[in-house]
Amino acid sequence: MKIHKIDHVGIIVNNLAEVKEFFNDFGLEVLGEGEVDGKWAERITGLAEVKATIVLLGMSDGQANLELVKFHTDLELSNIQQSPKTHIAFAVEDIETVVAKLKKKGAEIISEIQNYNNVYKLCFVQGPEGIILELAEKMR
Q: Which of 5, 9, 102, 137 could cross-link 107 (Cys pair, CB 3.0–4.6 Å)?
């Protein structure tokens, strides 16, 4: 089991265009953007009928990224009001061992380990004080 790095910090926002422009002006570059929805997104987030727009911003040195998430349905927004507005994503090795260790320590598994396009294994875990961790293992 190994943690390689903090990959990104995700922030839930209301006005995606305004926040994106703010961080762009601050000096972050847009690395990608797109829509997230469907069964896979529901499994990974633990939210029903999820639909979100995501913008990934980064620094030129590629060290860490910022993920902006805008949810689009009232149901999602009411669920999110009850939970933290951020998550920290870690690139890990041997995600199964990491998840098992966190379970033993009392962490709540929000979603079981999911395969994302045969590129990553992903899992969301809630730790103390509601802190959300996104765990990602690059598949070989």
A: 102
Using CA atoms, how far apart are residues 27 and 58, in angstroms rounded to an integer?
9
- Beta strands (DSSP E) in the chain are 2-12, 29-37, 51-58, 65-71, 86-93, 108-109, 114-116, 120-126, 132-138
pTM: 0.73
CB atoms within 10 A of CB 21: 11
8 beta partners: 65, 89
Residue 96, SS3 per DSSP? helix
Q: How far apart are alpha carbons 55 and 49 in whole angstroms?
A: 20
Measuring CA to CA, which residue among 98, 94, 70, 68 is closest to residue 124?
A: 98
Closest alpha carbon to 137 in 121, 124, 117, 126 = 121
pLDDT tens profile 121-134: 999 988 877 778 89
Q: pLDDT tens for residues 40-54?
A: 777 777 777 888 899
